[in-house]
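From the shared-data thread, chain only:
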Amino acid sequence: MEIQEREFAQRLARAASVLPDRKREYILGYAEGVLAMADRARNADQPLAAKDSA
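Structure, as tokens:
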């Protein structure tokens, strides 16, 4: 992980530690949605043969 990514993760963890559980779950859900969309976009860029072997 790059230094910038690590610092971002640390800041996010500090912020999440003071949030109520509902807000923490909202942020986690948002982040997981971003990951899912990025995976979908990445898979859409792969040729069909590469998708079949993955």
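Residues 21-45 form the longest helix (25 residues).
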